Amino acid sequence: MEVPCVRVPLENGETTRRELADADLIADDYEITVDDGSLYVPVTDPAAVSDEFELVTRSVDERDTQTTPAELLGFDPTYERLGEAVLLDEDDRDRAREISDALFQSDLPVETVLNKASKVKGETRVRDWDLLAGEDTEVVHREYGSEFLLDLAEVYFSPRLATERHRVAEQVTAGERTFDMFAGVGPFVIPFAKRGAECVGVDINPDAIEYLRENARRNGVANRVTAICDDVEAAASDYEDWADRIVMNLPHSADEFIDAAVTIAGDECVVHYYDIQHEDDPFGPGERVIRRAAEPAYDVTVETRHVVRSYAPHELNVCLDVRLDRPTAPRN
């Protein structure tokens, strides 16, 4: 069967396989193939594969020994993987239980099955879950070589943004001072710290901050991570003129915190500003908000206008990578 694959030289095969596995991108239904000095790793979502890898389409064998949920159900269920937890979004509880049973009878590595029981809600952006199988809602997620412990009932986390987080992390250099204004359990902070940055992560959710501290310890970067439980507008004054890089991943309301970001920004700072806007003008509103807040104190340059994903019909989740350069005094 013709499927999308990452092609790498055989000598880089194991490193690539591990990286794709950490991002939960390997298509388990198909065999990894060796041909003419190259390794072909089937992937589940080509759009989520980092640009550093070569994508091809080729014929690979299906795994005969693996029983899939689709084979047991007679239809192909829709779900997300988060470590060994499976996340469903089914309105029909009986259908959700049927899928849960099939997942456990299949050959997939599954310990927990959760069905979404509410929309994301409240200041901490958490949702209710229906625990269909497993002991609790705490899971371990691995992403591009980092490990995250989190409780889905207590914190917000989206596995769909793994590729975007990796894109940003690859821009970070050792010695940078980075500030994540809505840090959660650390999916930006931890990889930044692993690249040698000094990191501050702020979140108003105390559970998220506890997991951030634990994840910093798990990944061996606790000495480079400061985790603060507070409203970021209150915390901003303690880090005035401090940051070389700021992450603003609160796309529905990042504009409300742009003044705090400008306070935190140092003389030269890159801001990763996330937004959700109509497809007719996905980048304009965010750029105008940043310019109104930062100019004339800073020269503002939009370095990248990047579509992260489709969010809803005619709406896009986007990121603006914006450089702020203060034309006058050096950093204190």
Automatic annotation (TrEMBL):
It comes from Natrialba asiatica (strain ATCC 700177 / DSM 12278 / JCM 9576 / FERM P-10747 / NBRC 102637 / 172P1). This is SAM-dependent methyltransferase TRM5/TYW2-type domain-containing protein. Residues 79-326 form the SAM-dependent methyltransferase TRM5/TYW2-type domain. It comes from the Archaea. One of its GO terms (molecular function) is tRNA methyltransferase activity. Gene3D superfamilies: 3.30.70.2580, Vaccinia Virus protein VP39. GO terms for biological process: tRNA N1-guanine methylation. Pfam families: TRM5-TYW2_MTfase (PF02475), Trm5_N (PF18093), TYW2_N_2 (PF25133). InterPro entries: MeTrfase_TRM5/TYW2, SAM-dependent_MTases_sf, TRM5-TYW2-like_MTfase, TRM5/TYW2-like_N, Trm5a/b_N. CDD domains: AdoMet_MTases. Keywords: Cytoplasm, Methyltransferase, S-adenosyl-L-methionine, Transferase, tRNA processing.
